């Protein structure tokens, strides 16, 4: 069923109730469109979903989600649906038996090597160990050309091989470029203008977004089970793009994770929100939610992340051959006038939450413009 919705039908069928789907549902409902949003999971929020565990600690079942953005438009938009708790994320890396700040900064280098450099001496130090490359192409190039091979080996090589199952030399520069290097003592993981967590959690924020008489929510439902008998006019698809097309050109690689959640009988487990383990153990990092959410509780819950090739699709894998394969699917997607692909999985982009919100808001604008009658200003 596609064109001409029946009186009982929906204008939009939205597949996926994560950020991409929820923002579009909210925007479309606000202009009078009737929306059905379906998710095959038993909850809304996509990977940003949070809930209270058995001990009563607010956890992120799909790994720690820290909101940060430089976009006032995105922050203002989400502020309609939640109050915020200011939070600046800090990360330590376990290297050579020490816990040192990550991203690499002045304190990291001084602590690691037992030095007492100042910022300009650190700049000279980086320049002396950096290995210049003609063109920064890979995730190895980005780091080695800035801080040299020893810091690269200690902080990036092992972590990246664990996280992606690939050597940094096999990944686009954009992956490790997410984590900068600093000569200052700024030990925040992010430097964005807006850094805050939804005061009552992500799920409450999603509930507020979807709380509209024009929006119906259907959980535990694969869209393929209903798309042919519930009438709709246009589909917004936010799942993996290759799955939409039945993997007709082969599977796009998405990296997955296994999460091991633990609740501990103590108020605090570690000094900061996340500790990274670039070189030891099968897991990449351990995050303690109470740092991130600000919750007071006499127990604490933590999550260990174990990267895997199989499982729910979490990360697109940025490398040239995957971009080529994605392009073939994207070309087919372009041909479909009644389906729009949005979000991290459907556009195969390693996007943060704020980038997905921005992409969804831009998509809404485009859909609105396409609907406006020709010649009308
Ligand atoms: P998703 O949230 O994946 O939503 C897609 C939804 O579609 C899913 O709920 C899925 O069940 C549903 N779906 C798929 N196929 C079907 C189908 N056939 N039928 C019905 N439903 C279907 N971003 C940050 O900004 N800060 C962070 O700290 C951060 N940490 C992260 C940590 C981890 C471990 C991961 C994996 C991601 C993290 N992100 C973070 C990224 C963030 O999760 C994404 O940017 C965002 O959630 C993507 O939203 P989305 O709507 O595109 O996709
Ligand atoms: N990275 C690393 N060592 C670290 C942190 C990050 O090598 O201590 C690399 C790794 O390849 C990782 C990428 O940088 O996948 C991006 O890190 P980020 O913390 O942004 O990952 P995410 O939170 O998206 O999983």
Structural notes for this entry:
GO terms for molecular function: UDP-galactopyranose mutase activity. Its cofactor is FAD. Residues 154-350 form the UDP-galactopyranose mutase C-terminal domain. It is an enzyme of class 5 (isomerase). Keywords: FAD, Flavoprotein, Isomerase. With 377 residues, the chain is an alpha/beta fold. Among the domains are: 10-87 and 198-249 and 316-371, NAD(P)-binding Rossmann-like Domain (Rossmann fold); 111-176, no CATH class. The protein is built from eleven helices and 17 strands. The protein has helices at residues 19-30, 72-79, 106-113, 119-129, 139-164, 173-176, 202-210, 241-244, 289-293, 320-335, 353-371, and strands spanning 10-15, 35-38, 51-52, 58-59, 68-69, 84-86, 91-95, 98-102, 194-198, 215-218, 232-237, 254-264, 274-276, 285-288, 300-308, 315-316, 339-341. Strands 8-7-13-14-15-12-16 form a seven-stranded mixed β-sheet. Helix 1 (19-30) packs parallel to helix 11 and helix 4 crosses helix 5. The two termini are 32 Å apart. The model is unreliable at 1-6 (pLDDT under 50). Bound molecules: flavin-adenine dinucleotide and uridine-5'-diphosphate (UDP). Flavin-adenine dinucleotide binds next to helix 1 and helix 11.
